[in-house]
Amino acid sequence: MVYRPESVWEFSTSKNITFGVGASAELSDVVAEYDAGSVLVVTDEGVADAGVLDDAVASLDDDSYTVFDGVEPDPSIGVFEDALAAAADVDPDLVVGVGGGSSMDVAKTTSVVHAHGGDVLDYVAEPTGGGDSIPGPGVPTACLPTTAGTGSETSPVTVISLPDEDLKAGISSRHQRPDIALVDPGLTVSLPPGPTASSGMDALSHAIEAYVTRRYDAKPAPDRRMDRPDYNGRSMVTDQFARTAIEQIGNGLRNAVDNGHDLDARRQMSLGSLMAGVAFTNAGLGATHAIAMATGAVQHTPHGVTVALTLPEVMRFNATSAADRYAEIASLLGEDVAGKGRNEAAEAAATAVENLAADVGIEGGLSSLGIGDNDVAHLAERASQLERLLVGNPRRVTRDDLEAIIRRSL
Predict the structure, then answer these.
(1) Which of 13, 95, 238, 406 could link 283 by a cystine bridge, Cβ 3.0 to 4.6 Å?
(2) Which residue ranges does the record assign to the Fe-containing alcohol dehydrogenase-like C-terminal domain (predicted)?
(3) Which residues make Cβ contacts (< 8 Å) with residue 274, sequence separation at least 6?
(4) pLDDT (tens digit, 9 = 90+) per residue, 348-399?
(5) How far is the C-alpha of 395 from the C-alpha of 380, rounded, in Å?
(6) What is the CA radius of gyration of the chain?
């Protein structure tokens, strides 16, 4: 059969994005807009105990919403099931996710599974799950991020941990994109330096991988529109979002970590994270996230830190296929690449990422997370199975390549 390349690209995001300090105060208007008599707020105990939840829902009447605060980092299938049980109790007209990516992911999947029935695993791809498609929109969903990193407030993807299998599975559907994203940098001010750093480096990796991933027209055309993957390749539009995200994060992350009350830095990080999320959820990701997903599933390492410690070596590996793009990234991160050759400028980008990570306290390699030589082969094998991520990597990557990248990242 003759290869037929893709010739069109799609671009999707949340139906409405509201950005700025004070955006969370508009949640009551969202409730009114959807005429929601019953609201389920999905969050975690940390957000609730820190008072951030109170800030996020301050515009709502106390008796107008129910809180499910059982979300945990890297939420397991059990957390999703508990959230669905909470939804069954209140039959919400609106689901609101308040927190980091975990809370927003649980909110999104709760919305669609509550609306259409079945079990969470029914909508996970085979062979892990049933492979069912989500047939239509779920309960209207609003997301309020309290970190600047995951981009989940505009993403069609949720990640589910299956601890019994040392596996992270995903559900991907355009019906999981939130209806409303209320991105309020003020909600991130109390985030401690460590999570600020790790989530910020995660956002940077989203932007960088989206900027270097394969173009939409370097992928095979689908037989039908509905078969086009959510990660459908970079385009001129995703490039604009990714460039701005890289620049915003490069300018804001150090100050956001060093002084959490620097609202300008928090604004830069929230905007950078948002724009990186919009970029990668359309363009796709690459080997960095394949390695980080596999490592997190097997070794239970923190995602943002794992990404930060892996990204520079992935950039060096990819440089032969995307040197010009990495040279632009170096410039966006403040490096002077005038007079440098393509390869030297590309190396400057990888070094800039390493320096930024070190400046915000992330250094020491994957060995600092307890990963040793004996773990490398297994992690590479697991990462090599994440084809939906690797298909966008700008350079063809084999299991042996992944093993070499991980080893250099130790």
Answers:
(1) 238
(2) 237-409
(3) 17, 19, 151, 153, 154, 181, 183
(4) 999 999 999 999 999 999 999 999 999 999 999 999 999 989 999 999 999 9
(5) 16
(6) 20
Q: List phi, psi (to 5°) of 41.
A: -100, 120
Where are the extended beta strands (E) located within 83-239? 94-99, 141-145, 157-162, 167-172, 180-183
SS3 content of the chain, % helix, strand, coil (to 5): 55, 10, 30
Alpha-carbon span 309 to 367, nearest angstrom: 10
Condensed to tens digits (0 to 9), the pLDDT of residues 320-335 reads: 999 999 999 999 999 9
Tokens of 84: 């669905």
List where CATH 3.40.50.1970 sits in the chain: 16-188
145 pairs with which residues across the strands? 99
Give the position of tokens 């300008």. 264
pLDDT in the model for residue 77 = 93
The confidence score (pLDDT) of residue 253 equals 98
How are strands ordered across the β-sheet holding 180-183? 16-19, 180-183, 141-145, 94-99, 39-42, 65-68
Tokens representing 78? 């059990």
DSSP sequence for 145-176: ESSSS--GGG-SEEEEEEGGGTEEEEEE-GGG
The set of residues, in sequence order, having a beta carbon less than 8 Å from that of 3 and lying 6+ positions away, is 220
CATH of 16-188, one of 3.40.50.11540, 3.40.50.1970, 1.25.40.530, 1.10.10.60: 3.40.50.1970
Q: Say how many residues make up the chain.
A: 410
Per-residue model confidence as pLDDT tens digits over 139-176: 999 999 999 999 999 999 999 988 887 778 889 999 99
- What is the pLDDT at residue 58? 86
In angstroms, the CA 234 to CA 213 distance is 6
Digit-coded pLDDT (tens) for 83-134: 999 999 999 999 999 999 999 999 999 999 999 999 999 999 888 889 899 9
Which one-letter amino acid corresponds to residue 354?
E
- DSSP state at residue 230: S
Tell the residue number behind the tokens 């997301």, with chain if given.
Answer: 143
Q: CATH 1.20.1090.10 residue ranges in the chain? A: 193-409
